[in-house]
């Protein structure tokens, strides 16, 4: 059984980690920013904690699988992510933000399940993708639009 202190620490860690991702989206002025990422992550953390709690509480009396709640989060978050995606003329906007919201849900599930290494490593990797690869993506995109080499 997870202690009360551990529950609070897991919820706080989920808010902290998703806040890092949300700050990057907020700084870019995206539809799903700081608060959205934090709410998605802490909500999914709570759902995972609920699954863990139910599995421990009902152990031996009924068959409870904590991953069933997690699976519903994974599929349900797609609906929220779809709300950040818009089509404008010949382009689609919001896919990266939708993906980051989905990743925030995964981070919350990992923290809720006590998989801290996975949650922290994923947060770092998501930030690398959002921050570091953004510049690379812009250079490659500029190259393909201009027909020249990177840096032109």
Structural overview:
With 152 residues, the chain is mainly α. It has one domain (4-123). 75% of the residues lie in helices and 4% in strands. It has a two-stranded antiparallel sheet. β1 and β2 form a beta hairpin. α1 (4-27) runs antiparallel to α2 (34-57), α1 runs antiparallel to α4 and α1 runs parallel beside α5. The longest helix is centred in the last third of the chain and has 31 residues, at 116-146. It is elongated, with a radius of gyration of 18 Å.
In short:
This protein has five helices and two strands, in the order αααββαα. The chain has helices spanning 4-27, 34-57, 66-82, 95-112, 116-146, and strands at residues 86-88, 91-93. A hairpin with a 2-residue loop joins β1 (86-88) and β2 (91-93).
- Structural class call reads mainly alpha
Number of separate domains: 1
Major β-sheet strand ordering? 1-2
* Helicity, as a percent range: over 70%
| Strand proportion | under 5%
Through-space gap between termini: 59 Å
Tally of helical runs: 5
| Mean pLDDT level | 84
> For the CA atoms, what is the radius of gyration?
18 Å
Number of strands: 2
Query: Which spans of ≥5 residues are poorly predicted at pLDDT below 50?
Result: none
List the SSEs and their pairings:
Blueprint: H1 4-27, H2 34-57, H3 66-82, E1 86-88, E2 91-93, H4 95-112, H5 116-146
Antiparallel strand pairs: 1-2
Helix pairs in contact: 1-2, 1-4, 1-5, 2-3, 2-4, 3-4, 4-5
For this entry, give a set of tags.
single chain, 152 residues, mainly alpha, two-stranded antiparallel ribbon, 5 helices, 2 strands, elongated
């Amino acid at each position: 059984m997870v202690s009360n202190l551990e529950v609070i620490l897991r919820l706080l860690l989920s808010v902290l980690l998703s806040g890092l991702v949300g700050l990057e989206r907020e700084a870019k002025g995206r539809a799903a920013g700081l608060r959205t990422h934090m709410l998605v992550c802490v909500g999914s953390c709570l759902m995972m904690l609920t699954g863990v709690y139910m599995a421990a509480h009902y152990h031996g009396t009924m068959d409870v699988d904590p991953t069933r709640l997690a699976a519903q989060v994974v599929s349900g978050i797609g609906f929220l992510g779809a709300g950040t995606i818009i089509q404008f003329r010949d382009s689609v906007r919001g896919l990266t933000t939708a993906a980051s919201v989905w990743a925030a849900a995964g981070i919350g599930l990992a923290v809720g399940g006590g998989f801290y290494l996975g949650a922290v490593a994923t947060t770092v990797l998501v930030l690398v993708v959002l921050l570091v690869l953004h510049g690379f993506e812009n250079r490659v995109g500029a190259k393909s639009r201009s027909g020249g080499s990177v840096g032109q």
